[in-house]
Design a protein that fits this description.
F-box domain-containing protein; about 375 residues; 9-stranded parallel β-sheet; 13 helices; 2 domains; Leucine-rich repeat, LRR (right-handed beta-alpha superhelix); globular
Length: about 375
């Protein structure tokens, strides 16, 4: 845990040893307060097997949660909360319900974050731009753009991006600390309704271009991000959900030759193009989610057949591969249940297919009717 600069001199003038909460190390107080304000505050739900998880950052306009609550307990707790800028460096900005104080609230929150790097999520909708204080909120937020480290845009509107790009601070300065950009959607069935009004949306698409440390892109929206102007060559991590079409994922992967980690999900209703040459020579971790792993008469789904040339042409040193599917074969399940004590699984044909394999994980959550694969595994094991 990083060091927390916290002083209790204003509270203890007697010269005696501090007691109670004042005797706690600053790091422990920070941990307690951080857990207190984040408990039960998860806007999108949290599941280890999904990639739509949102971090539990406090809503700045909810005075009943987050660090605001700490300041309401007593004078001492308020002093402590105000002395820990880390508590104020992660936050969520939504459309405010209050009319007159929204900008003041945001300014107060940002002021309490000191000079800390900022991680925030914002409702980036057309409605936000049309709100009577939306522009002022964006101006206030943009004034701290040099400290942005993680930015999450929810329900992204092109109008919002254009408005953000026009902020003076964004135009004059780069985003020197930005490492992670995330676009998320609460409802994938709703298409952006403001794109047609822009004859030239290039300004909106370039808003995050000058980010020399950006290395992670998370795409949980329906937007085609390949049209954006981003520092593609420096991206090392790409995460994409099945809200986007398979083609969109492939286009992004094509733009990112230095990907090390890729985690993508595909909708089984997608039509498949011919996959272009993807020279992903740095790729070491690849997760492919939402597959019908044994769909129909195929041992491998079309998606795996299509991606096989990618691995062959890339000549990458892939070390981690996860195939996460929603269907599983009954006979394979029965086979695995019969060897429940197994700790290491190697797949053989006449030769070892994966000679360097150290760990294979199988997570089975849904039963359904399909056949195959276990026959090859079981016969190879019997042949030993």
């Amino acid at each position: 845990m990083s060091c927390v600069n916290l002083s209790f001199s204003a509270l203890d003038t007697s010269g005696e040893m501090p007691t109670g909460i004042y005797s706690f190390p600053p790091e422990l107080l920070y941990a307690i307060f951080e857990l207190t304000m984040s408990a039960g505050n998860d806007a999108f739900g949290s599941h280890d097997d999904e990639i739509t998880v949102s971090p539990p950052w406090p809503d700045i306009f909810d005075l009943k949660k987050g660090p605001w609550v700490l300041g309401q307990v007593c004078r001492q707790w308020r002093f402590i909360a105000l002395s820990i800028p880390q508590l104020w460096s992660d936050f969520y900005v939504r459309l405010p319900r209050c009319k007159d104080s929204a900008v003041d609230v945001l300014q107060a929150w940002l002021g309490r974050s000191g000079n800390r790097p900022l991680q925030f999520q914002i409702t980036a909708t057309l409605g936000f731009c049309g709100h009577h204080c939306g522009s002022a909120l964006l101006t206030t937020l943009a004034s701290t753009s040099a400290r942005w480290q993680t930015v999450e845009l929810v329900d992204v509107s092109i109008k919002f991006l254009d408005t953000l790009a026009m902020q003076r601070e964004i135009q004059l300065c780069s985003l020197p600390l930005l490492k992670e950009l995330s676009l998320r959607s609460r409802n994938w069935d709703i298409e952006p309704d403001d794109s047609p009004e822009f004859e030239d949306p290039s300004t909106a698409y370039e808003v995050f271009f000058r980010a020399p440390n950006l290395d992670t892109l998370i795409n949980l929206d329906t937007l085609s991000l390949s049209v954006f102007k981003l520092p593609w060559n420096q991206l090392t991590t790409y995460i994409g959900s099945d809200a986007s079409h398979a083609i969109d994922h492939l286009e992004i992967m094509l733009l990112c030759p230095n990907l090390i980690e890729c985690d993508v999900a595909f909708d089984r209703t997608h039509t498949w193009p011919t996959i272009p040459s993807l020279p992903l020579k740095q790729l070491k971790k690849w997760t492919i989610r939402e597959l019908a792993l044994l769909a129909g008469p195929f041992v491998l789904t079309p998606i795996l057949d299509l991606f096989r040339p990618v691995l062959l042409s890339s000549a990458c040193s892939l070390q981690y591969l996860e195939l996460s599917g929603s269907t599983i074969d009954h006979s394979l399940m029965r086979f695995l249940e019969s060897v429940s004590t197994i700790t290491r699984l190697r797949v053989w044909s006449s030769l070892t297919i994966l000679p360097l394999l150290q760990t294979q994980e199988a997570y089975i959550c849904i039963r359904s009717d399909h056949s195959s694969v276990c026959c090859a595994i079981s016969s190879s094991i019997r042949s030993r």
